[in-house]
User: Fold this.
Amino acid sequence: MLISYALIKSKLISNFAYRWESIGVILASAVEMLIVFYLWSAIFSWNNATEINGFTLTSIITYSVVAIFIRLICDTVIDGEMNYDVKTGDIIVMLSRPISIRTHYLSSAIGYFIFNLLFKFPLAFVIAILIGIIIPGLDTFLLFILSIFNSFLLLFAICFIIGSLAILLNEETWSLWFLIDALSLLFGGFFIPLVFFPDWIQAISYLLPFHAIYSTPLLIYVGKTSGIDALLSIFVQIVWIIALFIIGGFVVEKGLRRIEAQGG
Amino acid sequence: MMKNESVINVKNLTKEYVIEEKESGLWSAVKSLFKRKKRKIVALDNISFSVNEGEFIGVIGPNGAGKSTLMKILTGVLFPTKGHVSVNGKDPHKNRLEIAKEYGVVFGNKSNLLWDIAVIDSFELSKSIYKIPDHVYEENLKYFAKNLGISKLLKQPVRKLSLGERMKCEIANAFLHNPKLVFLDEPTIGLDVLSKDSVRSFLRKINKERKTTIILTTHDMKDISELCERVILINEGRIIYDGTLSDLERKFYSKRKIRILFSASYPKIEEFSADGVLHVEKNGEEYLLVVELKKIKLKEFVQKILSKYKVADFHVEGIELAEIIKEIYRK
Assistant:
């Protein structure tokens, strides 16, 4: 059993209980979207440019605004949840249930993701349209949705590794997320597309999973990758998902051995 | 007794932990980045016992005695360092996910119910995780509503319940899938007298009616005296007593308390000192004597006092279980 539908449903219900708290997060994203809008407008008018590295002003604004949008929707809070469960000892309760620990946290994360799709997605999308992003064709949009689902799974897999390290080391590891997050913003092409970077940064970024989180769905959205190339980049996402799930499975197994030996 | 009749079989079980010592202070914290002091702790030391179907067993012992460790090993969460453990004929650690379906568990200071959703939603979750058939689920909801009085709580989120209300729901949740075996780790901790009463009467009832085997840890001796026929007493990782409650009381129960109110003169405390009188104290007008029955014939002792002094009132009482246990812990 990889996921539990009942658990997804329960998590969805609990997220809706706190739905108004996420309004703040959505408004913060709206402010960020405004910042990148004026930032890119300033850069283009200062240079009198119509195109930089193959991006027009509208397409680069779309890229940056949708990047913020993806980060809002795909964020999982699993690393924090796992750290909390290790710290309070609730992890023992999880182990006394007949479902595996990964099933538990993956279901929890999917519950949160569905909440984001139902609640944050429409609100944030309206804001993004008001700022003036390009609306792509239906086929592009569907590929985009598929690729941000993969982005979610990638972020989950990374957060699960961080949380599993908390189980293994019996130490809080949530601050590790700040480092990973910063690296993913740089090597994932979050703030600016990867083509804006020197060659060596681009070379490193393709060795890391982060470009599959942000760059892949963003380039699909703005139409820089399409057709076979788009499917290929989605395939690369899936390869990274499998690799990171295997690493996470390895770390969590090691962590459970430690708990079994030492207790909570 | 055939071996396969017992629900739980524990043989020469030993559990050792290696713990890292965290010293106080900033410098120690920095040092601990490079080198950590490790220390071995023996939580359970070569214990053996078995449990038969339908038994209601109380596991008692002071804090840190190893009760919770034992519960975690029986539920498969921890693996033993040495020895053999079987639950329903299986090794709980090797078959953790499988065995988890067969038992119910409440860890008293943790929650199995999800904090933010209504109790009934948590029950629905258990229904799905434990694959409980509809008719069993409906039947049990009615049973719990009647015997635990939780029907008004079902639609409330768990975080809004009082501790007593929450514990009733936790216990219902543990019994929801009709497990033949239930572990309750300090289920009455922090509850008021009324809540304790209703939890106890529910447990007594379900143990009788459904022959559910129940293993309970507690610090409340009333839980034991009202529920458990058999007691396992653990101290410093060893079983120091395993048997019926009445045997335990008989074994340690050779003492009596005598309370006396004198009507005229107040004798000095020293006047009572004799071989077999363990303790004398005066609380206002009331005198309290503790005597050892092995050394004193109670009837003669009392008659002597009655004839010597003018007594307004007196009564003899046994020592409470809690005090017996306290004495055993001290040894």
